[in-house]
Amino acid sequence: MSEEFQNHDPNSGHTETEQHIVGPATYGIIFAALLVGTALTIGASYLEMGAWNPVVAILIACIKATLVVLFFMHIKYSSKLMKLTVGAGLFTFLILVGMSLSDYISRAWGQW
Which structural domain, as residue segments, surrounds residue 108? Predict the structure, then answer.
């Protein structure tokens, strides 16, 4: 959603809300950046980087996901509570991935 500024006048009995408007130029720039990120992902898939191929692909995907969350989902202009909610979701996801990886790494592969 958009950032809302509340101006409450106790004498008038109503509350005004003002929302942040994102211009079409900003959306165009973000769309172009996402297209460039897609082209980089495709280009990186043709390069032989060994074990770094998935690292580069995930890095590009994380940058693209950040752009989508910040601008298309309007988190950049949202309240601190909404940013905290997104951060808590990301933190929970990282905990789950970390716990899954720790289980995967600690297995005794080939010893059974």
Answer: 80-112
> Does 26 share its domain with 67?
yes
**The two structure tokens encoding residue 51:** 């074990």
Residue 5: per-residue pLDDT:
53
Q: What is the pLDDT of residue 99?
A: 95
54 and 30 both lie in a single domain:
yes
Q: What is the pLDDT of residues 32-72, one digit of tens each?
A: 999 999 999 999 999 999 999 999 999 999 999 999 999 99
Are 52 and 105 members of one domain?
Answer: no
User: In this structure, are 49 and 86 located in the same domain?
Assistant: no
Burial state string for 67-96 with b = 16 or more CB within 10 A and e = fewer than 16:
beebbeebbebbeeeeeeeeeeeeeeeeee
Token pair 């949202």 is found at 78
